[in-house]
């Protein structure tokens, strides 16, 4: 869908809600929502951050990524209407400021992803590329003894059977040197 400029129904519905929030903000501030300046988007992000509440059952404020989601929805609507959207560096800078404030108020630990991260080629290669003696959970890595020898063989095989064709060029030969 995205390749053809179309959006999923759920995205259109969410963006419609974000657009309503944007137009309400603009009417209150007497701003044309189709011709707003970058500083208006920065003010909007702060406004959304202050107005959002955390998900049910949480005592912390809403995360800055949620604010960014609202702004991205507005940007999609602006592009669909043929209007300029705020520059990426502006929204990134404001989000960084919101993250700093969030971390100060709620603790930086809450900014960490709540989902497990996928096991990517980069993670596998980082693991396999760890040198002998690298500290790991109060032990030094030694690829010749358990459990490191088994772990290295497991991740090497996992990578071998799940990697895309072009990824094989990234693997160093010594990274999968598993001994009998």
Question: Which properties best describe this structure?
Answer:
180 residues; mainly alpha; 52% helix; elongated
Care to give the gist of this entry?
This protein is an all-alpha fold.
Helix-strand category:
mainly alpha
Order of strands, main sheet, comes to 1-2
Biggest sheet features = 2 strands, antiparallel
What is the tally of helical segments? 6
Bin the strand percentage. under 5%
Shape: elongated
Q: Portion of residues in helices?
A: 40-55%
End-to-end Cα distance, whole Å, is 50 Å
Q: What is the alpha-carbon Rg in Å?
A: 23 Å
E-strand count: 2
User: What are the secondary-structure elements, in order, as H or E?
Assistant: HHHHHEEH
User: What would the average pLDDT be, to the nearest integer?
Assistant: 76
Task: Outline the low-pLDDT stretches.
Answer: none
Task: Please tell me about this protein's structure.
The chain is mainly α. The protein is 52% helix and 2% strand. The chain has 6 helices and 2 strands; from the N terminus they run H-H-H-H-H-E-E-H. A two-stranded antiparallel ribbon has the order 1-2. Strand 1 (135-136) and strand 2 (139-140) form a beta hairpin. Helix 2 crosses helix 3 (64-80). The chain is elongated, with a radius of gyration of 23 Å. 16% of the residues are buried. The model has no long low-confidence stretch (mean pLDDT 76).
């Amino acid at each position: 869908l995205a390749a053809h400029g179309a959006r999923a129904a759920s995205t259109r519905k969410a963006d419609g809600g974000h657009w309503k929030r944007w137009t309400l903000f603009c009417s209150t501030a007497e701003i044309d929502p189709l011709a707003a300046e970058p500083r208006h988007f920065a003010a909007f992000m702060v406004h959304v951050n202050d107005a959002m509440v955390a998900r049910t059952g949480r005592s912390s404020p809403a995360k800055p990524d949620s604010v960014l989601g609202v702004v991205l929805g507005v940007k999609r609507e602006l592009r669909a209407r043929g209007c300029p959207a705020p520059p990426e560096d502006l929204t990134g800078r404001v989000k960084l400021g919101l993250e700093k404030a969030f971390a100060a108020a709620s603790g930086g630990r809450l900014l960490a992803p709540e989902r497990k991260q996928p096991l990517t080629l980069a993670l596998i290669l980082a693991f396999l590329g760890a040198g002998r003696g690298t500290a790991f959970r109060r032990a030094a890595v030694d690829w010749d003894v358990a459990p490191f020898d088994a772990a290295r063989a497991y991740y090497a095989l996992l990578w071998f059977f799940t990697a895309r064709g072009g990824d094989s060029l990234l693997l160093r030969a010594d990274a999968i040197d598993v001994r009998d």
